[in-house]
Structure to design on (309 residues):
C-alpha cells in the first residue's frame, strides 16, 4: 500500500468505513466487464453499480470499487474512434482551458507540462502550439498509437508508476481523469512528486453538488459505470489539500461540442430524438458547427503545490 493510500473498503478521502447507499445499481451495468464501457464516448448514461455517500466527509463513490489491476487492464485495452471524430470540438474546448490555465501559471516560455490521461493527445497538441514543452501519459495502447501517428509525445503508462523523473514538471493536468481512478488521493500525491517547487495541478471533473446534479438526482447522466468517484467542490478541494496542494480557483467550466456529435449524445437517451436532431442539422447544414455546452456540473480546479524542496 502506497503512502497516504486508504485501506480497501475505506473512503479514499477521510478513511471512514461508514457509508450510506445514495444511488442503487441501475439497469444492466454488465458492460463493466468490457473495456467498451470505459471509452470516453461510451453512451451508457445512467448504467452503474451501487454508489454510496461517505458518512464522514460526503464523498460519493462506487462501492465496492473494482480492483485497480482490473480497471487498469480495461483502460489499456480501450479503443475509441468516435473520440477522434469529434477532435474539432475538443480542440476548441482545450484552447479555452489552456487560456485559463495560463492566466494562473503565467506564459509557457518552454516550461514543462504533463497531461495525465492524455488519450489521443488533443490537449498536448494545443499546449505544444502555445509554447509549452508538453508530454502526455496515457494507459490506452490504441490512444498512444493514435497520438504518435500525429507525432505527438504521448507515453503509455500509469500515474501510480510514472516513467518520468521526480520534480521535472511545472504543470500537471488531469482533464476528466480523476473520477476514473481507483485511488484519486494517491494519484494527486504522485502528481505532486512530479512537480517542481511552486508547480501547478489542474483537475477538471464532474460536480456532484451542482444544481443540475441535485435536480436530476438518479437521472444525472454522469452516473456511469466508468466513473468511480463523484466529487463536489468541497470534497475535491479537501482531497487536493490532503495531497499537498493549495486550491486557488475552482469554478464551472463547460466545453464545446459539434452539433453532430451532440446528436449522438442525445441519441443515447432517445434514439428517435437523436435521429430527428441529426436530420434537422443536416437539413440546415449546421452539423459541423461547434457550440458551447454547460449545465454547470463540470468544474475545474487550479491548485498550487505547497511543498518546497
Amino acid at each position: 500500500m502506497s503512502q497516504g493510500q486508504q485501506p480497501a473498503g475505506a473512503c479514499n478521502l477521510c478513511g471512514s468505513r461508514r457509508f450510506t447507499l445514495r444511488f442503487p445499481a441501475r439497469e444492466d451495468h454488465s458492460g463493466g466487464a468490457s473495456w467498451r464501457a470505459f471509452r470516453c464516448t461510451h453512451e451508457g448514461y445512467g448504467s452503474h453499480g451501487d454508489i454510496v455517500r461517505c458518512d464522514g466527509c460526503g464523498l460519493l463513490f462506487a462501492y465496492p470499487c473494482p480492483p485497480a489491476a482490473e480497471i487498469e487492464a480495461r483502460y489499456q485495452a480501450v479503443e475509441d474512434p468516435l473520440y477522434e471524430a469529434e477532435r474539432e470540438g475538443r480542440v476548441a474546448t482545450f484552447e479555452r482551458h489552456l487560456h485559463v490555465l495560463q492566466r494562473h501559471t503565467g506564459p509557457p516560455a518552454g516550461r514543462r507540462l504533463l497531461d495525465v490521461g492524455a488519450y489521443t493527445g488533443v490537449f498536448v497538441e494545443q499546449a505544444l502550439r502555445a509554447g509549452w514543452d508538453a508530454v502526455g501519459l496515457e494507459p490506452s495502447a490504441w490512444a498512444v498509437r493514435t497520438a504518435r501517428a500525429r507525432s505527438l509525445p504521448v507515453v503509455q503508462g500509469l500515474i501510480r508508476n510514472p516513467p518520468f523523473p521526480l520534480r521535472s514538471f511545472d504543470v500537471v493536468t488531469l482533464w476528466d481523469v480523476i473520477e476514473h481512478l481507483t485511488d484519486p488521493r494517491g494519484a494527486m500525491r504522485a502528481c505532486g512528486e512530479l512537480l517542481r517547487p511552486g508547480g501547478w495541478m489542474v483537475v477538471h471533473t464532474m460536480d456532484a453538488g451542482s444544481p443540475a446534479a441535485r435536480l436530476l438526482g438518479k437521472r444525472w447522466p454522469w452516473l456511469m459505470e466508468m466513473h468511480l468517484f463523484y466529487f463536489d467542490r468541497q470534497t475535491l478541494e479537501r482531497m487536493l489539500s490532503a495531497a499537498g496542494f493549495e486550491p486557488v480557483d475552482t469554478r464551472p467550466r463547460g466545453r464545446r461540442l459539434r452539433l453532430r456529435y451532440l446528436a449522438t449524445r442525445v441519441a443515447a437517451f432517445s434514439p428517435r430524438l437523436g435521429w430527428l436532431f441529426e436530420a434537422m442539422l443536416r437539413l440546415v447544414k449546421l452539423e459541423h458547427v461547434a457550440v458551447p455546452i454547460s449545465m454547470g456540473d463540470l468544474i475545474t480546479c487550479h491548485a498550487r503545490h505547497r511543498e518546497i524542496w
Notes: Confidence is low (pLDDT under 50) at residues 1-5.
